[in-house]
Design goal:
GO cellular component, one term: cytosol
Order of helices and strands: EHEHHEHEHEHEHEHEHEEEEEEEEEHHE
Distance between the termini: 21 Å
Helix content: 25-40%
Structural class: alpha/beta
Bound molecules: pyridoxal-5'-phosphate
CATH class of the largest domain: Alpha Beta
Radius of gyration: 23 Å
CATH topology of the largest domain: TIM Barrel
Keywords: Isomerase, Pyridoxal phosphate
Enzyme class: isomerase
Number of domains: 2
Number of helices: 11
InterPro entries: Ala_racemase, Ala_racemase/Decarboxylase_C, Ala_racemase_C, Ala_racemase_N, Ala_racemase_pyridoxalP-BS, PLP-binding_barrel
GO biological process, one term: D-alanine biosynthetic process
CATH architecture of the largest domain: Alpha-Beta Barrel
Oligomer: single chain
Shape: elongated
Strand content: 15-25%
Length: 358
């Protein structure tokens, strides 16, 4: 028998969440963002399930080529562009669109002498100070790209740091919007600015293309309730109780004896650990469902096991069902308790975890 730990990917939820994204931005085309193995949900599976998307966006060129080999004929976008000039003929041959965020990339396109057309997404650094051209250098970059015969279209893109927290004093959303509008004013081409937070909370900024990621998987940016946005969890991580200990007051549980029982307790051992993607830094009390009841972590997360408080769940026994996250326990809630975000938990799902789809 395999280990009882299993991740279930809910295909209907993925489709539903894409429909929610499209309903927020009905006049925009939608890139379904499938980077990081579709946020842990499986790239090939996501491709099959997101057939209603207008394009798929990811990071790696080899993943993009695989999407073509698996039969995706609609647009594909490399969100960070290419990393090496050897990728350029590959992008041209497969019709893989790519971001251009620095002059070094333009140098490579100029030198590549491409035979097939390429479709570029010129990225503005509107204040996040990660990738992109500074506002005062965008027009020169646009002119250089427009002068390259193989460049068929230039879409204007930027990425928002705080769409889920628009008043953030470090960089208000409105300031990024202002910089984008000013830097791109009068330039031809489509616009692409909106991640999930923008789609969900500032749909008026949707523009020609939106780029939802986390919302497609039933999570939200900024720890808001996905359910309140009508999103459905696309990943459930479930396991079973594989052992039970009845301990006296004062007994300690697990490595480092981080949890010490204040009273007589029942402790359940769950087949799931940090080597499966469960966050090792999850504190005591991190929520977990056992046999339909909500309880909490008791003791440090081990490589292959976690320990949970079963004292108030008398029905629990070896073999009882455990939900680490999923339909009854939102992944964002577990992430918040563990000091991280749902994105990280999804992406960290380890290759050794059995995945089934439903
Ligand atoms: C990851 C990413 C997105 C999607 O972000 P979410 O917060 O998951 O919706 C959109 N655009 C770019 C450039 C990205 O890198």
């Amino acid at each position: 028998m395999p280990r009882p730990l299993v991740a279930t990917i809910h295909l209907a939820a993925l489709q539903h969440n894409l429909a929610v994204a499209k309903s927020h931005a009905p006049r925009s085309k939608a890139w379904a963002v499938v980077k990081a193995n579709a946020y842990g949900h499986g790239l090939e599976r996501a491709m099959r399930t997101f057939s209603d998307a207008d394009g798929l966006a990811l990071i790696e060129v080899d993943g993009a080529v695989r999407l073509r080999e698996w039969g995706w004929t609609k647009p594909i976008l490399l969100l960070e562009g290419f990393f090496d000039s050897a990728d350029l003929p590959v992008c041209a041959a497969h019709g893989i669109q790519f971001a251009v965020h620095c002059n070094e990339q333009i140098d490579m396109i100029e030198k590549a002498n491409l035979q097939a057309p390429v479709y570029v997404h010129l990225k503005l650094n509107s204040g996040m100070n990660r990738l992109g051209f500074a506002p005062d250098s965008l027009r020169a970059a646009h002119a250089r790209l427009s002068g390259i015969a193989a460049v068929s279209s230039v879409t204007l893109m930027t990425h928002f740091a705080n769409a889920d927290d628009s008043g953030n004093a470090g960089l208000p959303l409105a300031e990024q919007v202002r910089r984008f509008e000013q830097a791109t004013m009068g330039l031809p081409g489509q616009r692409s600015v909106a991640n999930s937070a923008t789609v969900l909370e500032h749909a008026e900024l949707a523009a020609d293309w939106v780029r939802p990621g986390i919302m497609l998987y039933g999570g939200t940016p900024g720890g808001r309730s996905a359910e309140a946005f009508g999103l459905k969890p696309a990943m459930s991580l479930e396991s079973e109780i594989i052992g039970i200990q009845h301990i006296a007051a004062g007994e300690a549980v697990g490595y480092g004896s981080r949890f010490i029982a204040a009273k007589p307790m029942t402790i359940g051992v769950v087949a799931c650990g940090y080597a499966d993607g469960y966050p090792r830094h999850a504190p005591n009390g991190t929520p977990i469902m056992v046999d339909g009841h909500r309880t909490g972590l008791a003791g440090r997360v081990s490589m292959d096991m976690i320990t949970v408080d079963l004292t108030d769940i008398p029905s629990a026994r070896v073999g009882s069902k455990v939900e680490l996250w999923g339909n009854k326990l939102p992944i964002d809630e577990v992430a918040t308790a563990a000091g991280t975000i749902g994105y990280e938990l999804m992406c960290a799902l380890a290759p050794r975890v059995r995945v089934i789809e439903q």
